[in-house]
Amino acid sequence: MSEATWAALTATLTLLGAIWTVYAFRNRGVASGLRGAGFTLLPAAAYTTGTLEMFTEIAQSVLDWATSLVFSPIVWAGVVLTGLSVVLFMVSGAMRERGIGGPAGVGAAPERERKGLGRARQSEPAVVDDDLADIEAILRKRGIS
Question: 108 lies in which domain range?
Fold first, then answer.
């Protein structure tokens, strides 16, 4: 679009915003009117900074992508492959978590070791502070350690 078209679009949006702002001031109060004035200034700000054209180009690109997605069987094949990939990642993660499907010997740990029963207890560090020793003794007495 030409520069004149962008200027006309900005003027139209600003004029419509000004009409809404006057209506809001009269019928909805000062707070709504000020909010309308803020919205009214946005098209002019977008035009002067060049973002109005950028936003329309972004919208056009998204629209082109969406229409190619809907009407292209090749794109749908890509969507299906993406979904299949996600499912495969999820299944492999669940299998690794359970220890199945790995090479022999890696996931074949005995049931005792997988549950943590076969591990040796780690020695607890020596207590230096007497107050902490009392607290730890109370916690051990209640089964919390």
Answer: 72-145
